């Protein structure tokens, strides 16, 4: 999920003219933070997934990710999941929306779509996707086996100034067969400081 923030910041300001490189300094060493303004009934990522077998190791400007995650969301396999993420920039103490956000009313249909941000940033690294694709995230006990992968914390060739605090807010909501929203939803944030990368002498 961390790559989502990076891909979207890149597409938000990327150009080859007057370009500068930037580094993301994570605010929370655990990467994922609870939402400060989540929808009612929202919980953090640790209450939707068992992440006890996932390891994150930061090495300078790279985060190495490995291990497995198990879904624990207490919803039904027939539920529809709506997903969204949005990037915010902190301006004078207030989180202001940027131009970049994305949502889908059927997350399960895009979870393993090779053209989706979800796939490019996360699910392409799930090794057993052929076995679990039909289970999405609405089947508790589904084991997602990940290949080791790296998350780069540098973006290159950014036009103008992108410095300051940013956050990406990710939300997943489940709806039953009557299209009624389930009481428990997922909402988490990835927050960090974007700083101009110092040129090596």
Explained architecture:
This protein is mainly beta and 201 residues long. It has one domain (2-196). The chain has four helices and eleven strands. Strands 1, 2, 3, 6, 7, 9, 10 and 11 form an eight-stranded mixed sheet that branches. It has a three-stranded antiparallel sheet with strand order 4-5-8, with helices on one face. It is globular. Residues 1-19 form the signal peptide. InterPro entries: Uncharacterised_DM11_DROME. This is GK21541.
Please summarize what this structure is.
The chain is mainly β and 201 residues long. 12% of the residues lie in helices and 48% in strands. The protein has one domain.
Name its key features.
201 residues; mainly beta; eight-stranded mixed β-sheet; three-stranded antiparallel β-sheet; 11 strands; 12% helix; globular; signal; Uncharacterised_DM11_DROME
Biggest pleated-sheet summary? 8 strands, mixed
Helix content: 10-25%
Residues in β-strands, percent: over 45%
Number of domains: 1
Rg calc: 17 Å
**Uncertain residue ranges:** 12-17
Please state the average pLDDT score.
Answer: 84
Which word captures the global form? globular
- Report the strand count: 11
SSE arrangement, N to C: HEEEEEEEHHHEEEE
Structural class: mainly beta
Q: Number of helical segments? A: 4
Question: Span between N and C termini?
Answer: 33 Å
Protein name: GK21541
Keywords: Signal
Organism: Drosophila willistoni (Fruit fly)
Signal peptide: 1-19
